Amino acid sequence: MRTFLRVVATIYIAYLVIALLLISPALNFLPHKYLQDTYGRELQTGWVILNPFTLSLDISQAQLGEPGGERFAGFSEASIDLSMESLWQPGWVLDTVRIRDLYVGITRHSADEYNFSDLLGDSEPPAAEPPASEDTALPGITIRELELHSEAIVITDAARETAYISRWNGLHIQVQDLSTVFEEGRPFSVAVEAADGGRLDWTGAISIPRGESSGQLSLQGLNLHKLWVYAEPWLAFELKDGRLLAEAEYRVGWNDGLSYSVNSGHLALADLDIAPKAPAQLADTAVSLKRLDIDGIALDSATHAVTINAVTLDTLAVAGWMEESRISLQDLFAVETGADAEETADTDTGGEPWTVALGSARLHNGSVRWRSAYTDPQVLDIKPLEASLENLNWPLSGDTPLSLSLAINEQAKIAVDGTLALDPGAGSIHYSLQGLPLTWFNPNLPEALKAKVTGGSVELEGQVALQEFAPTTITLEGKIREFSARREGAEVELTGFELVRIDGLAVDMTAHSLVLKQLTIDSYTGRIHIQEDGSINASKVWQAEVGEEAQQIAEDLTQDKPWTFSLPSIQISDSAIDFMDQSLPIQFRTVIGELDGEVLNLSSDPSTPATVDLRGSVDGYAPVTLSGAVTPMADPTNLDLTLVFDGVDMALLSPYSGTYAGYVIDRGLLDLNLHYSLKDNHLQGDNSIRVEKLKLGEKISSDKAVDLPLELALAILTDSNGVIDMQVPVTGDVNNPGFDLSGVISDAVVNLLTKAITAPFTLLANLVSSEEDLQRISFSSGSSTLGERSMGKLDELARALEQRPKLSLAITGRLNMAADYKRLQQNTLKQVLLERGLSEDDIKLKDIEWENEISALHADLPGAGTGAGELTPREQYELVVQSITVPDEQMLALASQRAVAVKAYLVNTAGLAPERAVVAQANLKESDNEFSGVELGID
User: Fold this and answer.
1) Residues 871/857, Cβ–Cβ less than 8 Å
2) For 139-182, what is each residue's pLDDT tens digit?
3) How far lies 757's CA from each of 660, 712, 764, 909, in Å?
4) Could you tell me the CA-to-CA distances from 664 to 531, 532, 614, 723, 880 in Å, in that order?
5) pLDDT, tens digit, 9 for 90 and up, residues 395-440
6) End-to-end CA distance of the chain, in Å?
7) In this structure, are residues 219 and 199 in contact, taking their beta carbons and an 8 Å threshold?
8) Which residue among 112, 315, 323, 534 is buried most deeply as judged by most CB within 10 Å?
């Protein structure tokens, strides 16, 4: 026993001597020399002691430099304490493993060179892997207390153009009973702080034999600017500020393949501030975010499922612009991958696909400041911007409620809400729009449109039904307020209105139908301006030919099922049309205002006529109405419309009367009743024109004036009440290329005036419903005595002249030169017979006394003795008559007597004023004397 103790004591003393006098000194010398001789690195230590009593190795103030002398690694204290439990516990048991104030500086000098590359030796091809051993268990080791505390871990990338340095301070790792032998999980904790803010706390339990760990991770306030600095060479933006926060509970296992799960996860970004690195190239471009929170994160590799309770963005602000095809935000987030960047191949991981379920996503107090050439003003401030999504799943399934609301430039407000089934793309969306200025869209108007919107705002509200993300039905209620538009270069508005209200618009995209219950137009104003060159202002608004693009659109619209529309009611109130004509020598302008009425039953049905009933006034006093029916979709179009003007002041029409009639109108009132019907392309017009108290003014020289004695025509047409009442029918074929409605009407009016001048007595006869020719009053040959029929005609003429008080007659006696001459010869012979003692009865009965006297007169004729006994009394009578000469004076006297007889009858019997009938001088021209009577003319 004593020998045994002596041996043990000897061994123990030897152990102490070797540990204290050999190993400890060697540890303080040999590693230093080895590193210096082999790698040229200096190792400095305070003391290195192998404590034979506690079985621990302690090192103090160790510092390892780089070959150039720079600091590479070091610590203030390190301790490894072997436990006596190793004698009876499986594997090795260490009571303590501790490192304090650890410093590590890792530097990359090039793609394949680091500041520790020399310590790894020469790169050699890896040796062939030995055959797998059946026993792959980890070596048995148990550490009762593992503690690591760092001064700093510094990572430097000097291979970059600008060196990147990342420093992590205060790394603290503490693990209790870390073991590869005992299966029960052991607690641990890790804590580390970044130099410029941010802290990682990791606590949990780990079981190496089981190959599992669980615990909690918390990352608070990590400054993202440092991460941006690393990626800066490949980025176009600068991350000025931003903090990352993350926390979660986790479980991970690795023995039977990698498995993991996360619960109660929360990820947040705070105070994000992104700006362009080159502000001059990407001015007015930035992104900032007050906070992004992703709450309730859970994922499980076993079920391949990810769930997120909520994603919330607070105060997201985006600024950017679009110039032609360039978008500033796209440039801001462009990533430079380099010319040798490898393409990422599509990978198919196989296995069960992952599912994702998002409870809700919300944006609060967002804003967008956007500049583009497509709006006026070019800069739009969209704020506040609120949006939400709920129940979003991948693969897509279920219904997803959504909403969006925003305001633009503190004027327009847009709101959208509804529910979508994202898998089929089906759902219903409610939308509303308030106060959107129409002037914002002027830059989008076609170049051919030489006009711009100068005012107006839109209010809309409705519903859209979707199928496969395409609209199937659209409903809309809307208003357009205070709209106005102006032609380029004009100083006044071309058109406008106070309000257009759309009630009950329903569009069915599948059935190709449109129904609008009612369209209300209030206070519409339009200007029709004929300019000095004869062009109309509206014709200059669009200055382009309809091209192939428009034709293609028309073909596309008619390719499928044709569209149908129904507009039961168009209501018009308090509207006005301002008409101005500067093509005349005197400018003309009038306003058809106070326009009210309705258009009913307008539709695409060619068999259903739309009814029109509009009422207004000219210049505020003369009523005007338009009424009737029209079938615009019929082929051909049919219409039956009546346009009525009452009491229009004709003095306002002087610019037109001076140009086309050659006279200014001093005064007069005009009533028009224009009725037009169009059927089967045949136009039939019945125009009633009534003029009261017309007085022409001075004569105007105009090369466009009709060459007619207008005053005479008007006198013929003006009745006793000072009224001109004309019926002007028009007709025509609208398919005729030469058909022009305005030309047809003007020709009809000119024809009527020409007829009044050239055939005034026809119009006079019409006034008294007479079919007689009142211009010619017949007399018996050689007579100046009126017959009964002639007196009747004069009575009718007098009645007609009562209706035309401005007309006077010129009375001219006319002769039938042969008949009247012979009758005067006969009258002269009769007078001779009376003087020779015959009575009227003898002459009328032609008795024996008459025959004897005729024979005696015949015998006195030169050469009458030859063959006289062979002539009958009648033949002798004719020869006696022919022998009588009637002087011209007697013929003219007969004509004058006839004219006087007509005037006497008109004045004394028919009651015509003497000054309205003037006897004209007769003549013996054969061309003027074709009948026995009186020819009347208008004086």
Assistant:
1) no
2) 778 888 888 888 888 888 888 877 888 887 877 888 787 777 77
3) 17, 7, 12, 28
4) 21, 20, 31, 18, 65
5) 999 999 999 999 999 999 999 999 999 989 999 999 999 999 999 9
6) 178
7) yes
8) 315
CA distance 30 to 36: 10
Question: Which residues neighbour 730 within 8 Å (Cβ) at sequence distance 6 or greater?
Answer: 683, 684, 685, 687, 741, 744, 745, 748
Helices and strands, counts by H and E, the chain: 16, 38
SS3 160: coil
Burial class of 237 by CB neighbour count within 10 A (0 to 12, 13 to 18, 19+): buried
How many Å apart are CA 579 and CA 595, to the nearest integer? 14
Cα–Cα dist 694/698, whole Å: 13
Q: What's the length of the chain?
A: 939
Preceding peptide of 636 cis, ω within 30°: yes
The sign of the torsion formed by the CA atoms of 107, 110, 111, 116 equals negative
Return the HEC string of 212-272. Answer: EEEEEEEEEEEEHHHHHHHHHHHECEEEEEEEEEEEEEEEEECCCCCEEEEEEEEEEEEEE
**Mean pLDDT in residue range 313-338:** 89
Return the biggest CA–CA distance within the chain.
Answer: 226
**Do you find a cis peptide bond into 384, omega within 30 degrees of 0?**
yes
Q: Are 187 and 176 in contact (CB under 8 A)?
A: yes
- Omega of the bond leading into 914 within 30 degrees of 0 (cis): no
Domains in the chain, CATH or no CATH each: 211-224+231-333+353-374 (no CATH), 569-574+604-758 (no CATH), 776-938 (3.30.1330.60)
**H-state helical runs in 479-621:** 548-559
Which helix (H) or strand (E) element contains residue 274? Answer: strand 259-276
For residue 603, what are the contacts with CB-CB under 8 A and spacing of at least 6? Answer: 564, 565, 566, 567, 610, 633
Name the one residue in this structure whose structure tokens are 């790894």. 120
Q: CB atoms < 10 A from the CB of 457, how many?
A: 19
CB atoms within 10 A of CB 710: 18
900 by DSSP, 3-state: which?
helix
Q: Give the E-state strand segments of 55-160 in sequence order.
A: 56-65, 71-82, 92-110, 113-114, 141-157
Q: Which of 486, 557, 570 is nearest to 526 (CA)?
A: 486
> From the CB of residue 934, how many other CB atoms can be counted at a distance below 10 Å?
29
- In terms of DSSP bridges, do strands 92-110 and 113-114 run parallel, antiparallel, or are they unpaired? antiparallel
Question: CA nearest 13: which of 53, 54, 58, 57?
Answer: 53
What radius of gyration do the chain's Cα atoms show? Answer: 59
Give the other-Cβ count within 10 Å of 893's Cβ: 15
User: Strand, coil or helix: what is 137?
Assistant: coil
pLDDT for 364 beyond 90:
yes
Query: 193-202, 552-561, 616-625: which has the highest mean pLDDT?
Result: 616-625
- The CA distance from 260 to 243, in Å, is 27
Stated pTM of the model: 0.72
